[in-house]
Design a protein that fits this description.
Elements: H1 10-21, E1 24-25, H2 27-35, E2 40-44, H3 48-53, E3 60-61, E4 80-84, H4 92-102, E5 106-110, H5 113-119
Parallel strand pairs: 1-5, 2-3, 2-4, 4-5
Length: 139
């Protein structure tokens, strides 16, 4: 069986990855940005019940389905918005990012969501401990 090797155009590959990095951030980079006191508004886009079971410290909860001019009116428009949801199998953070872009905010999405945040050893805040099941609510 013959293996076909495709040669990448380095300039196209660089442009692709640079563009991708303009729209996503990882847990380590987010932690660094938060510690440097950059103007960031961290939005957990999951449902309220899931937010209360655990979220990134300092995050606010605006479920992606409820994002509107009214629900975001008090947010700092100069701040970078970072959206996140449960994890890689959930697309709620992507939906939230699109909603926030449509409302005129600068946005990045947290790669891997809350799951990768915890896997990298970062702390979470737990407001309530009723139950252990978490649903990303990304439908």
């Amino acid at each position: 069986m013959e293996t076909m090797t495709r040669v990448q155009d380095p300039a196209k590959a660089r442009a692709y990855f640079e563009q991708k990095m303009a729209f996503i951030t990882g847990p380590v980079e987010l932690d660094r940005m938060l510690k440097s006191h950059e103007a960031i508004t961290l939005i957990d886009v999951r449902e309220r019940e899931d937010f209360e079971k655990g979220h990134i410290p300092g995050a606010i909860n605006i479920p992606h389905r409820t994002m509107s001019a009214e629900s975001t009116s008090r947010l700092d428009r100069a701040a970078l918005i970072v959206t996140y949801c449960d994890g890689i199998g959930c697309n709620g953070s992507t939906k939230g990012a699109v909603n926030m872009l449509n409302l005129g905010f600068r946005v990045k999405e947290l790669m891997g969501g809350l799951d990768w945040w915890k896997r990298d050893g970062h702390k979470t805040h737990i407001a309530a401990t009723s139950g252990t099941s978490i649903s990303c609510g990304c439908e």
